[in-house]
Amino acid sequence: MSAPTHAPAPATSAADSPAASPSALLSSPAAAAPTTAELLAFALRTAADSELVASLPLDPQGRTWIRLDGPRGSEAWLIGWPPGTGTGWHDHAESRGAFATARGKLTERSLAVRLPSEGWRSLELAPDVDRGRGVPAGEGRGFGEHHVHEVLNESRTEHAVSVHAYYPPLPLIRRYSRTGPVLRLEHVERPADWQ
Questions:
Q1: CA-CA distance, 82 to 15, in Å (whole number)?
Q2: Contact residues for 107 (Cβ-Cβ < 8 A; gap 6+)
Q3: Any residues with CB less than 8 A from the CB of 128 and at least 6 apart, and which?
Q4: CA dist., res. 162 & res. 4, Å (int)
């Protein structure tokens, strides 16, 4: 999943939110890096926290979010998705991650292919690399490094809310456009672009 594309919800921060409760159960930062399975367990557990989910202000015009403390130095977000919104095609570079839906249903479209990490602007994808799955409330998805996907709330009427966690914290996000089998690298975002 990617970092949000709109400004954060005002007057809410990780320090103010009840987000600290799930991570308080985890080991110290000196412990080994969290696995994808641990990131997914964190996302599922946090998505089940109805008080935290209800604390997220929802905006009908764009995504909103609260930054959370993820397990053992990971980066985490609680994100609200208005009807019909999505991330567009992107990856999270060298970060592995997970997301879980807390409310509504999200759809993930992904590519079953490992792209070169650099040195290209446009690639023609082989047939049969597209994958898709619905991720309803209470379910989640973990993924490894260089995972190319887009996440969407395809509902026309219902907001969705989800929890995302990444380790290491996102060094960058590469955004792509797609026309048929052709995938183009459009731009690279750095943490300063979304924090």
A1: 25
A2: 132, 133, 134, 135, 151, 152, 153, 154
A3: 112
A4: 12
Which residue type sits at 116?
Answer: P
pTM metric for this prediction: 0.82
Whether 76 and 69 have beta carbons less than 8 Å apart is answered as: yes
How many angstroms separate the first and last alpha carbons of the chain? 15
> How many residues are given for the chain?
195
DSSP per-residue string spanning 95-133? -EEEEEEEESEEEEEEESSPPPSSS-SEEEPPTT-EEEE
Please name the residues in contact with 105: beta carbons below 8 A apart, sequence gap of 6 or more.
Answer: 134, 135, 136, 137, 153, 154, 155, 158, 160
The tens digit of pLDDT for each residue in 132-180 reads 999 999 999 999 998 999 999 999 999 999 999 999 999 999 999 999 9
How far apart (Å, rounded) are the C-alpha atoms in residues 69 and 74? Answer: 7
pLDDT digits (tens, 9 = 90+) for 176-195: 999 999 999 999 999 888 76
| Closest to 71 in 3D by CA, of 53, 90, 98, 93 | 98
Contact indicator for 70, 39 with CB cutoff of 8 Å: yes
